[in-house]
Amino acid sequence: MTHLRLGVNIDHVATVRNARGGDNPDPVRAAKLAQAAGADGITAHLREDRRHISDADIAALSTALSIPLNLEMAATDEMAEIALRHRPHAACIVPEKREERTTEGGIDVVGLHQRLAPIVGALGKANIRVSMFIEPAREQLDASRKLGAPVVELHTGAYANATGAARAAELARIREAAAYGASIGLEVHAGHGLTFDNVGPIAAIPRIAELNIGHFLIGEAIFVGLEASIREMRRLMDEGRGEVGASA
Q: What is the CATH number of domain 5-241?
């Protein structure tokens, strides 16, 4: 098995800051702490309504980090222009609705091919590694490959929200999608709703190269601190992957 990377999403540090206004807590400081705690990358979602991460945050993160920045973005001309200006390591294209509390599912690559193709093409030409945030379904994997995206991120929300036999079925769906995605040349990531309690079985899937986790880590940090939260997630990921002791 390859080493499983951890991307830490810092959006909700900005959510807390924006609840009161001002400069604190600072998402860039959180990103640097995550980096020190062993994160392999930082994820930030610049939403069209700017409900958490701001344009200034993206500019600051682009210069402050020595690990990759993954910009989550909607498939709009405005977001494409911002990505092309800042040139993050990666851009993950996600569906976005103003009325949602958080991303509610994967983007429909099959149905949105015509809209997505020029954006994916422009980002790729700028050497920005494009990933598509999708449901774990073969048709979405095939469409992502046809689009020219080198990476997919499988939406794990249904798995995280399920219990018992339903969770086992969702896990099997993710496992099959990861194997199929890798077989057609895609790098496979996963994320959404992952916690200390449910990350192990996802980490054990050998074809998944990276997990992106945010909300739970920031919430847990209230009680134990951000570095401790990230280090424990890293430990559980390594344990699930069969790399016990790798991060000791």
A: 3.20.20.70
**Separation of alpha carbons 220 and 230, rounded Å:** 9
Q: Residues 173, 215, 203, 188: is their CA dihedral positive or negative?
A: positive
3-class secondary-structure state, position 72: strand
- Quick: pLDDT tens for 177-196: 999 999 999 999 999 999 99
Residue 179: exposure state from Cβ atoms within 10 A (0-12, 13-18, ≥19) = middle
45 is catalytic: yes
Domain range list for the chain = 5-241
Answer yes or no: 52 catalytic.
Answer: no
pTM, full prediction: 0.93
Instruction: From the candidates 52, 155, 189, 192, give the one annotated as an active-site residue.
Output: 192
* Residue 79 to residue 93: CA distance in whole angstroms: 10
Catalytic: 48? no
d(C-alpha 206, C-alpha 232), whole Å: 20
Q: Which residue out of 72, 96, 135, 170 is catalytically annotated?
A: 72
Residue with tokens 């990505």: 83
